[in-house]
Amino acid sequence: MNYKMVFYNLGRVVAVEGAALLLPLITSLLYSEWTVALAFLATMGIALAIGVVFSLVFKPKDGTIYSGEGFIIVALAWVAVSLVGALPFVFSGEIPSYVDALFESISGFTTTGASILTDVEKMSHGILMWRSFTHWIGGMGVLVLVIAVTKKASERNIHIMRAEMPGPIVDKITPRSKDTAKYLYLIYVGLTVVEFILLLCGGMDVFESVIHSFGTAGTGGFSSNNSSIAEYSPYIQWVIAVFMMLFAINFNVYFLIIIGKGLNALRSRELWTYIGVVVVATGIICANIFSIYGNFGDALRHAFFQTTSVMSTTGFSTATFSEWNEVCKGILFVLMFIGGCAGSTAGGIKLTRVILMFKTTRHELKRMLHPRVERSVKFDGKKVEEKTLHGVGVYLALYVILLLIVFFLLCFDAGFSFETNFSAAVSCFNNVGPAFDQAFASYAAYSPFSKIVLSFAMLLGRLEIYPLILVFLPSTWSRNH
Amino acid sequence: MRIIVVGCGKIGSTIIESLVEEHHEVLAIDKDYAVVNKMIETYDVMGICGNGASYDKLIEADVERADLFVAVTETDELNMLSCFIASKLGARHTVARVRNSEYNTESLRYIKRNLSLNMTINPELLAAEAIYNVLRLPTASAVETFTARQFEMIELYVHQGSALDGVKLMDLKKNPDMQFLICAIKRGEETFIPNGSSEIKSGDKIAIIAPHDDTHTLLKNFGLLKKQARSVIIVGGSTTAQYLARLLSKNRVSVKIIEKDKERAQFLGENLPERVAVLCGDGTDPELMKEEGITSVDAVVAITGKDEENILIAYDAQLGGVGKVIVKVNRDGLFDVAEKLGIESIFSPRKLVADVVVRYARALESSIGSTMETLYSVMDGEVEALEFEVMPDFTHVGVALKDMKLKKNVLIAAILRGNDAIIPSGDDVIQSGDKIIVVSSQHRLCELSDIIR
Q: Domains plus CATH for chain B?
C-alpha cells in the first residue's frame, strides 16, 4: 500500500473542500450573517492547514497507485471530507451536536438529503447554501472534482475514478482521465446552470434557485423550505421534476450528444429502460391518486414528480407521499432500490445492474433446460464478461446483507415502527432521503447511535460498498497484501 | 494529439507507455479483452476490444479525429489493412509495423504509396541495425548515428584505470585535433548534462558525440579501442538474427547462428548466405557453446525469445572471456538484473520502436512542418538526443552559442554544415540550413525553438 500517496491525496481533497467553502462564505457575507461567516472561515483555515500539512508531510516519491489504493483513497477521502464538512454546522451553533452535524454533512455529500433538522426555515442562508453545495460536490464526486481541477495528473487516476463513480462498468469517455473528469463536470455545470435559469424564469429568487439547482443536480434533495417543493408553482415543480430525471441519466449519453453522436446514445438499452420505468410508474401512480387531486393535470404532475424524485434518489417532494395508498407507496419503494442509471449522480442499485441481473437470471434458467447451451449475456450488443456478471452478483449479495444489518441495528431504537425503520434503512442506503411513516420529514428523533448507523449506510450506498468494506479489511493494511 | 494504437503486445504496450508519458490522448485497440483491460488499468488510455481493421471498431474509436494511427499487431497484413482503412476513414497519419523481409524496400515503397501509409516500422531490422552498430565499435555499449552517419553518439562505461577515469572535461578539450563532446554522464541513478568542470569517475556511463570518421581515432587515443568484431555467435534464430546475419556477412564478418528449433534452423540455413553457419542446438548448453568456440569468438549476441536465457548465455560468455557480449532484454525488471551482472550492452527492441513512434508523433506536433529528423532516447531513456534542421525563420540564426539563452539541461552538441561536421564551441553560430544535434534531459522538445529559454 502506497500510504504516502493515500494521505497525499487526502490532503488535496480536503484542501479543495476548503476552497469550496468560499461559496457559502460569500453567501453568509452577502446576508450579513457574521457568526456563520466566521464558522466558515475557521473551517477553511482548518481544511487548508490539513491540506498543506498532508501534502508536505506525505509528498510521495512514487506516484503509482493500484486499484487497492484507489479504493482506500476514495473511502478515506469521503470520510475526511464529511468530518471537515460538518464543522461549519457546529461552529455556527446551528447544529450544536457533532453527531447531528456529521449526519447532515454525510447526507449532503452522499446526496441523500435526509435531514435531522425539524425546521429548515430557521437556518441561516450560509448554512443552507453549504448544505446544498455539498450535494452538488458529492453528486459528481469529490475526487473526480480534484482530478478535474488539479494540475498534476497521475496516470493512474482511473483507479480513483472507478472507485468513486457509480455503476458496474466505468468507461472513460475520453482517453485521458483528467479530460473525462473535466467533461463530466462541464456537462454537470452546464445542466445545473440551465436549471438555475429556468427556475429564475419561474419567479424563484436567486438564493432558492441556487439551492434547488444544487439539490437537483446532485440528486440530493435538501430544500430551503420545510415543505420541500410543495409550495412552488406547477411550472417550477415541472422544471425540477424534468431535471431530476435528466440528472439520473448516464452522463455518457450527454457526452455523445455533445460530440455529435446522439444516435449512438439513443441505442442505449439502459436509457430506454429508464424512460420506460418512469412512464409506467407515473401512469400507475397517476391513476391511483387521481381521486385525491380530482384533476388530471395535478395528479400527473405529482405522480411524475414523486416518481423521478425517488427514482433519481433525490428526495424532493410536492406531496406527502407517505400518505398515499399502498400501491403508490409500493411502487415508490421499489423505485428506491432501483435508482438511476449508472454513470449519473443518482444512487440506488442502478438500472444497469438490475438489467444485467435479469439477463443473467434468464441465462441461468435457460442453462437449466439446455445444460449444453453456449451463449453469453449481451448488453447494448456487446458481450458482458463473466467477471462483470460475477461482480454484479457479489455486489447484490453484499447490498442485501448490509441493508439488513443496518435495518437490524435501527430496530434497537425504541419507538419507531417497522415501516419507519425499514424504509429509513432503504432510503439512506440508496441515498434517497425521505422515508415513510415517522421519518418522512426528518430523522431528528433517532438516537445518536442510529444516526451514525444511517450515516454509514449513506456512505456505503454512495461509494457502492466496496471502498468502505476494504478499509475495514485487515489484509488491506498488512504489508504483504 | 489523438493517437490510436492497434495491437497491445510487447511493442504496442511500450509505444502506448511512451505516448502517454508524452501526454497524448491514446486509444488502445486489441482483440484480446484481457489485454485491453490491462492497458486501461496500467495507463491513462481508453481501450476498445476488437479487430483493428474492422470498420465498426474504427468508427467506434473515432478514427476520423485521430492524428496518428499506429498498427503494430503480430500480422503485417492486418497492420497494413488497418492503416489503409483508417486513412480512408480520415486518420491524418498512419504507421504500420511490417517485419516480413519479403516486403523489401521496393515493395514497401509501392505499398506505402498505394495504401496511403506514412511510415512502416520493422522492429527486427531496427534491432539488427542497433546491434550491428555496436559490433562495429565494441568499446561502446550502444551507438546511435545521426544524419547519414556523419555523427555518432557512443555510450560507454568508464572502468577503473581507464584513461578517462578522474579527468575533468575541460582538460580533455585541450587536445585540438580531436573533435568530440561528452554530452551526458550517468552516475548511479543520476544522469546529467556535464559542463567543463565536471569530472569523470570510474563506474560512470558517458555519452560521447563525435564525427563518424573520428570515432576510431578518438577511442584509440584514449586507449579504449577494442577491435571490430570479426567473428560473432548469435544465439537465437529470430528474424532479428536473420537481418543481423545478413548485415554482418555483407561486411565479411564470420557468423554462426545457434537455434534450438530444428525447422527454424533449417529455414535459416536455406535462406541465409552460405558464409553464415546455422546450427541446431541449445544455446544454454555450455558443452555445445564450448564446442562451437565460444571462447575464441570476438562477440556473442544473445537474442533468443527468453530474457532469462539471454542473460544466462551472456553472463556465461562474459565469464569465458568473450570481448563483447550483447544481450536482448525485453522486461524492465530484468534490465537491472543484467546490468548488475556487469553486462554492458543490453538493448530492448521495443524501446527502439517506441522511440521511432514518439519521434514521429512529436514531429507532427511541431508547428512548422517537420524539422525534427531523428530522436533517440539514450542513457537508458534518461537523455534525449534530437536532430533538427535549422529553418531560416529560427530566431537565433547567426547568434553565437555562448550568447544563446538555452534552457537548463539542454546542450547543442553538434552542427552539420554541408559536409562539415562541427563540434561547436561557444563562438560558433548556427546558420540556416544547418543540421544540429541537441542533447537534453528532463525536457520534451518538439521543435528547435523549444531549446531557448
A: 2-121 (3.40.50.720), 127-221 (3.30.70.1450), 231-322 (3.40.50.720), 352-451 (3.30.70.1450)
